[in-house]
Amino acid sequence: MSEPEILLTNDDGIESVGFRALYDALSTFADVTAVAPASDQSAVGRQMSTDAVVSEHELGYALQGTPADCTVAGLEALCPDVDMVVSGINKGANIGAYVLGRSGTVSAAVEAAFFDVPAIALSLYVPADGDRAWQEKATEPEDFREATQAAAYLVKHAEPAGVFKQCDYLNVNAPMTGPDGGPADMQVTYPSELYDMTAEYENGSVRLHDGVWERMQTGDIPDPDGTDRRAVVEGRVSVSPLTAPHTTHHHEALDALAETYRD
What we know:
27% of the residues lie in helices and 24% in strands. It is built from 8 helices and 11 strands. The chain has helices at residues 17-26, 67-78, 97-100, 104-113, 145-157, 212-218, 228-233, 252-259, and strands at 5-9, 31-37, 54-57, 60-63, 84-91, 119-125, 169-175, 186-188, 197-202, 205-210, 237-242. It is found in: Cytoplasm.
């Protein structure tokens, strides 16, 4: 059996530690081509460019553009014959329904779905540790081992198992370690609906704040078992099978409004 062809992208930038850890892990069994942002493009969602300067990189290509740009550029021009798009590993979790549209990591996978190419988005949940901010952690490739192991397993087995016949992409979030310090278990999940955004207006400025992250640190989250957030906070690898196009349903009340529009 031939090696799978992988387009690897992310939103933290091609030089990020998580990206290199994932590239090295997948390269042990796959032909991996990097098409990733040249700089940090976190939280840009599916923002697109009309022109993106491309530079050759030892891992593939670096773009002066967004993660969605990278997927389109890769699938259309730079490596069009890949079997799968893999995006990550993002330093910081991408969990909850409200986060999905903001995340550049997830958006790269969403973009792939419109090309009918299977995709996996991967992120690492990095909890704060006392006075040490989460941004100061996960600085070595080994810190991403739970995510790289999950990535390798899913890239090898998801497509042959028929997973992508029932979904467009997988949103995967891994803890740094399992609950007992050992390997983490894997759980199929759905995005949490918890939302705790607030805004305060003062002196001509509005300060926006996402309170979910503090609640995660204390364990004060109402998410039931089965949600992505509950799984990863409790030390499991969360795998959410998702679809990219917005779904529509027959809506009798809206039908009635449309019928009387010109009356």
